[in-house]
Amino acid sequence: MPDYGHDLLFGSFITPANAAPERVLDLAQVSEDADLDLVTFQDHPYQPAFLDTWTLLSYVAARTERIRLSGNVINLPLRPPAVLARAAASLDLLSGGRFELGLGAGGFWDAIEAMGGRRLSPGQGVDALSEAIDVIRGIWDAGNKERFRLDGTYYQVDGAKRGPAPAHDVGIWLGAYKPRMLRLIGAKADGWLPSLPYFTSVDQFAEGNAIIDAAAAEAGRPPAAVRRLANISGRFGQGGDQLLSGPPEQWAEQLAALTLEYGVSGYILMNDDPAVLELFGQEVAPATRELVAAERSRRR
Amino acid sequence: MDYAHPLRFGAHVVARTPQEAAERARLAEELGLDLVTVSGEETDTWTLLSWVAGRTGRIGLAPHLLDAAEWAPAVLGRAAAGLDLLAGGRLELGLGDGAGRWEASGVRPLPPEQAATALGEAIGIIRGVWGSDTRLPLRAEGEHYRIAGAERGPAPAHNIPVWTGGTRPDPAIAAGADGWLTTSGGLAADQAVIDEAAVRAGRDPREIRRLVTVAPRAAAPEWTGELVAMALEHGAGTFLVEDADEAALRRFAQEVVPAVRQAVAAARAARGVTEAAVPSSLVRAHRHPGIDYEAVPAHLTTIEPGDAGYARVRSTYMRGGSPGLVLRPGTPAEVADALAFARGQQVPLAVRSGGHGISGRSTNHGGIVIDVSRLNAIEVLDKETRRVRIGPGARWSDVAGALAPHGWALSSGDYGGVGVGGLATAGGVGWLVREHGLTLDRLRAVDLVLADGSLVRADDTRNAELFWAVRGAGGNFGIVTSFEFEVDEVGEVGFAQFVMDASDTAGFLRRWGAAIEAAPRDVSGQLIIGRPRPGQPVIAQVMLVVDADDAETVLDRLRPIAAVAPLLDHTIQILPYSAIMHVPPGGHDGQGDPVARSALADHLTADLAAAATRLIMSGETYFFQIRTVGGAVSDVPADATAYAGRSANFQLVAFGPSRARLDAIWDRMRPHFSGIYLNFETDLRPERLDDAFPGETLRRLRELKRRYDPANVFRDNFNITP
Ligand SMILES: Cc1cc2nc3c(=O)[nH]c(=O)nc-3n(C[C@H](O)[C@H](O)[C@H](O)COP(=O)(O)OP(=O)(O)OC[C@H]3O[C@@H](n4cnc5c(N)ncnc54)[C@H](O)[C@@H]3O)c2cc1C
């Protein structure tokens, strides 16, 4: 029954629709005002109805003060890792250490290829992501005075200048479901970020955790080196026996249970309704924190 | 050589630390400069630029030579459009050929010749992503990039100027670059190279704006002299002061810029040169014959087919269009100017507010659209009498949202995306109609621009005949620029959605009609039946609003209606009227031309119900709808407004795939009808005028049409021929 002991994070997942950009910006502001910790946006560069996620993250960072930001998750195949690394560090520096790097191997290969990207098999995608993490960490390693080189199968970097270093230890969180990706997380990443609606049962957290923990141990890392997060959806209203369908107190109990039993410490709500985000930040988040703190001190 | 571009002044900010660059950009904005360009050194340029965009509000923005290859060009195109949308149309795109690529990404740069080709390909792809003249996916087979059917869009907020630099301009200029960046030292020599490249690409050299970086100088007068010479002798249009510290930036903005502007303006006046930017030939190539684009008054906002925003304005909610010019006036006087211009052109004219016209053809092919969506203000004039002024371009969602905090609402339509202009000039049958009447029944005054360009006000005392005509046939008489309504006190309401088994279709329609007529006026609503599916029961969606905020009354009102047929599913909520009307903003992308027939009926008689059932069963309508009217609508005498169908309790509409087949059935149903509500009618046969405006009403309207619009300028919506 793992609880990895991380502080809890609560965030929003806002549709980056370009039909009304001011609405997207408003929802980001609502997230900050509701005391959420994190605002995130999906990244599908081939989707013409969306704002470019990288641009949006930078723009929102400039217009907020406190809230942290992440792609959920950034599409690696259309964002070359060396450029991405420098962009991520730049955004972290500009925002005073508020950026986290949610990253994914990509999935919609037809669309990726149509945009000029390279088609990979799912397995190749994982290997490319692994190389990309090396590139990103290599570029961020600004203290190292040697130019960065990597002659990989998927990425070749022929002596890039390193730096800048980000303002804080930017977490690399991977969106993942399958064992190969989960092992990669255990070996190299800082977070696991699946979407709960894709799970058939919450026990998939336990199964995933086991794979990640084993891979981490093999790499000589403690299990707590990897934060477990989840994109969640739900509704507020009269209680039922479904997960996240009821009043805020019921959400808090259910989320606290996920934290204490499955080690999840980041909850990102997929919703574009300001009233719902407010309830999540103002009521669910503090109530969940309280329940988790009480149980953690009891266990200690 | 002076290309006579209006001069622009900016600062090129280099990021030694990202924070410093952002601060310098803010200072440039404060100092009133036109443009700030940023380059990152270590910092990622695009990230820095997006950040600066978020921290500024007015100044133009550009990356100072972004490597188009860093991110896939198609991704960059989409990112640029997105930033332009976020930043309200402030972006310019400075692109480089990747000479610095090695430093940044560890990918070796291409040899110069190939780099120039690659840049040209990238510009083509970026412009293709923005492309608005076609819905076809983007394909490009280049030496360096391959795009295999990417979706296009979004269109940026404005035509993003693309500029670049270097010594091999041909590929970029052929691909549509609008500007060329050079240094003060290189300017004189570069001009000829660029001019020749432009001519080789079939473009006018004046289209290419010349941007020059200039080093800060200590003495303002000498600095001024240099820039004046560059503008007048060597065609410089934009000056970018290079990496200036705060003092130098202030000196540039406060001393040099005004002096250069003044000297250049004086010299141009003396030489008889008029300042003007020559539009790109890539935009001009899409112009339609029959419109004299050069004669459009310069102060009007326009969108033409080659412009970035064209995809967002060409079509309406229901119709595909390809107008030659969309004029977007921002004041009543500009509406008059737009109209005067349009009248001088021998092409069709359409008037558009919210773009949801069905009878109203608010787009066209090759003609002009006057789009008044910018006239969208909503103001409370008097709290006591609940008097509100609303611009035609507001959408009913916005109106409901603005009135809600006062505890008010205005009976409008059922869908918040619809515009005020087209609905309030013809009727307005909505969720509160039986209790509060048609939208136009709440109208107390209008301001409009008449065909002759005059701006007039009409109400019960001034231009009373015109006011009568505007309430039901407004689209025939002018362009309304503001409406004054007396709105009603409305709080939370009951909103019910029923799914009913309408297999006994005729019986269901009859019983539903009877239940509605028996219901108090606080009940309004509609039913919708789609095309029946073989082997499945006919399903009716019923939606009702009860203007009451207590559950008991709401349920009391709903029970008899719920009992008319087996209830398969239902939801009942009590919520603010504005929540029912809420629709997020968005553009239109309609295609084709809708086929819809409309009618009013006093009662849903057995005969009408049987005829409607035959229509539904024929499969010739995929959307059959009956809305409630009557109640307060019938309190108004038939001759009080041009909307004359006051006896009706129901309004019917059918959309179908085939005009001929739908007409054949609908025409036979005519004996059961008592008129038509024109807003849902697409039939153009002249008899429809008699249906909408029976007898004396039509005679009066024709007479007024002869008085107010003898040349029949306004004819895109249910035309009353003079
Ligand atoms: C999805 C949908 C739902 C609808 N629901 C309802 C409903 O519930 N109740 C109802 O009554 N109607 C309803 N309608 C019909 C609607 O009222 C008409 O289509 C109306 O014309 C739309 O107004 P608009 O401003 O959006 O249209 P536009 O397309 O902008 O204009 C349509 C026509 O109105 C005229 N017009 C527009 N602006 C002005 C102006 N400023 N001055 C003078 N004339 C002008 C022009 O002739 C123009 O061709 C609905 C339509 C749609 C598409």
TrEMBL record, chain A:
<protein>
    <submittedName>
        <fullName>Luciferase-like monooxygenase</fullName>
    </submittedName>
</protein>
<dbReference type="InterPro" id="IPR011251">
    <property type="entry name" value="Luciferase-like_dom"/>
</dbReference>
<dbReference type="Pfam" id="PF00296">
    <property type="entry name" value="Bac_luciferase"/>
</dbReference>
<feature type="domain" description="Luciferase-like">
    <location>
        <begin position="15"/>
        <end position="231"/>
    </location>
</feature>
<dbReference type="GO" id="GO:0004497">
    <property type="term" value="F:monooxygenase activity"/>
</dbReference>
<keyword id="KW-0560">Oxidoreductase</keyword>
<dbReference type="InterPro" id="IPR050564">
    <property type="entry name" value="F420-G6PD/mer"/>
</dbReference>
<dbReference type="GO" id="GO:0016705">
    <property type="term" value="F:oxidoreductase activity, acting on paired donors, with incorporation or reduction of molecular oxygen"/>
</dbReference>
<keyword id="KW-0503">Monooxygenase</keyword>
<dbReference type="InterPro" id="IPR036661">
    <property type="entry name" value="Luciferase-like_sf"/>
</dbReference>
From TrEMBL, chain B:
<keyword id="KW-0560">Oxidoreductase</keyword>
<dbReference type="InterPro" id="IPR036661">
    <property type="entry name" value="Luciferase-like_sf"/>
</dbReference>
<feature type="domain" description="FAD-binding PCMH-type">
    <location>
        <begin position="318"/>
        <end position="490"/>
    </location>
</feature>
<dbReference type="InterPro" id="IPR036318">
    <property type="entry name" value="FAD-bd_PCMH-like_sf"/>
</dbReference>
<dbReference type="InterPro" id="IPR050416">
    <property type="entry name" value="FAD-linked_Oxidoreductase"/>
</dbReference>
<dbReference type="GO" id="GO:0071949">
    <property type="term" value="F:FAD binding"/>
</dbReference>
<dbReference type="InterPro" id="IPR016167">
    <property type="entry name" value="FAD-bd_PCMH_sub1"/>
</dbReference>
<dbReference type="InterPro" id="IPR016169">
    <property type="entry name" value="FAD-bd_PCMH_sub2"/>
</dbReference>
<dbReference type="Pfam" id="PF01565">
    <property type="entry name" value="FAD_binding_4"/>
</dbReference>
<keyword id="KW-0285">Flavoprotein</keyword>
<dbReference type="InterPro" id="IPR011251">
    <property type="entry name" value="Luciferase-like_dom"/>
</dbReference>
<protein>
    <submittedName>
        <fullName>FAD/FMN-containing dehydrogenase</fullName>
    </submittedName>
</protein>
<dbReference type="InterPro" id="IPR006094">
    <property type="entry name" value="Oxid_FAD_bind_N"/>
</dbReference>
<dbReference type="Pfam" id="PF00296">
    <property type="entry name" value="Bac_luciferase"/>
</dbReference>
<keyword id="KW-0274">FAD</keyword>
<dbReference type="GO" id="GO:0016705">
    <property type="term" value="F:oxidoreductase activity, acting on paired donors, with incorporation or reduction of molecular oxygen"/>
</dbReference>
<dbReference type="InterPro" id="IPR016166">
    <property type="entry name" value="FAD-bd_PCMH"/>
</dbReference>
<dbReference type="InterPro" id="IPR012951">
    <property type="entry name" value="BBE"/>
</dbReference>
<comment type="similarity">
    <text>Belongs to the oxygen-dependent FAD-linked oxidoreductase family.</text>
</comment>
<dbReference type="InterPro" id="IPR006093">
    <property type="entry name" value="Oxy_OxRdtase_FAD_BS"/>
</dbReference>
<dbReference type="Pfam" id="PF08031">
    <property type="entry name" value="BBE"/>
</dbReference>
